[in-house]
Amino acid sequence: MADPLRILFATPEIAPWVKTGGLGDVAGALPPALIAAGAQVHVLVPYYPALRTAFPDARLLAAIDAPGGLLPACRLLEAQSGELTLWLLDMPAMFHRGGSPYLAPDGGDWSDNALRFGLLSRIAALLASDASPLDWRPDVLHLQDWQTALAPAYLHFTPGPKAASVITVHNMAFQGLFPAAVLADLALPPECFQPEGLEFWGQVSFLKAGLHYADTITTVSPTYAREIQTPALGFGMDGLLRRRASQISGILNGIDYAAWNPANDPLIACPFDADHLDAKAANTAAVRARLGLADEPHVPLLGVVSRLTHQKGLDWLAETAGRILDLPAQIAVLGSGDAALEKALEDTAATHPGRMAVTIGFDEAMAHQIEAGADAFLMPSRFEPCGLNQMYSLRYGTPPVVRATGGLADTVVDPGNGARSKASANGFVFEDESAEAFFEATARAVATWHNRNRWRRLQRNGMARDFSWRHAAQEYLTLYRRLKAARVP
Ligand code: ADP
Question: Looking at ligand 1, which atom is closest to the CA of residue 23?
Answer without folding.
Answer: 2
